[in-house]
């Protein structure tokens, strides 16, 4: 079975290929394709955004699609930044600005600053939807550390670890991440 993973992010593609690739599943991606539809991620939930991506890419390419949406939720900010994780600091958001804004908002509250990464992974083949969630709990640290990963990784310490996600080797992150959990569950549903 050929599956189009709706991403242009090489890091995510590598991670998801490692999980899904098998003798019966071949994972394709958007990398190198032309005329890629732009999907506005305006859903209220990670799953709504992942579904929207899956449907739009299926309608366009007519092959079974898997799509995901992910982000960071914090307890003290009542789930924020959540679905706006990528653009938390505004229109010209960068990982650095998003992290700065998060730390500034969280500084109003005492530690521990509990947080979790969440990922929704959705499969759509024109008839059937399959959907799976993954999450990883941890807390936000004000001491940004590490150069691996992306996004909020340098300020997120997963429960059970003393290092930030950005200090963990990529293989370790990939084995515990919200994305790996969501796609491992999705694989078992396929
Ligand atoms: P998307 O699923 O690629 O749209 O990710 C949305 C945003 O959530 C990213 O831009 C990051 O800010 C954040 N995010 C999602 N997954 C991770 C992760 O594994 N580490 C750090 N940040 C993440």
Provide an overview of this structure.
- The structure is a single chain.
- The protein has five helices and six strands; from the N terminus they run βαβαβαβββαα.
- By secondary structure, the protein is of the alpha/beta class.
- It has a six-stranded mixed beta sheet with strand order 2-1-3-4-5-6.
- Helix 1 (10-20) crosses helix 5.
- The radius of gyration is 17 Å and the shape is globular.
- The model has no long low-confidence stretch (mean pLDDT 95).
- Residues 68-72, 85-86, 98, 117, 149-153, 177 line the site of inosinic acid (IMP).
Please trace the helix and strand order, writing H or E for each element.
EHEHEHEEEHH
**CATH architecture name:** Alpha-Beta Complex
What percent of the residues sit in helical stretches (DSSP H or I)?
A: 25-40%
- Give the terminus-to-terminus CA distance: 10 Å
Q: What spatial form do the alpha-carbon principal axes imply?
A: globular
Rg for CA atoms: 17 Å
Low-confidence stretches: none
Strand content: 15-25%
Which class of secondary structure composition applies to the elements? alpha/beta
CATH class: Alpha Beta
CATH topology: Maf protein
Major sheet: 6 strands, mixed
Bound molecule kinds, no repeats: inosinic acid
Give the domain tally: 1
Annotation field: number of helices: 5
Q: Let me know the number of strands.
A: 6
Mean pLDDT: 95
Strand order of the largest sheet: 2-1-3-4-5-6
Features:
24% strand; single chain; 190 residues; Maf protein; binds inosinic acid
How would you briefly describe this protein structure?
Helices cover 31% and strands 24% of the residues.
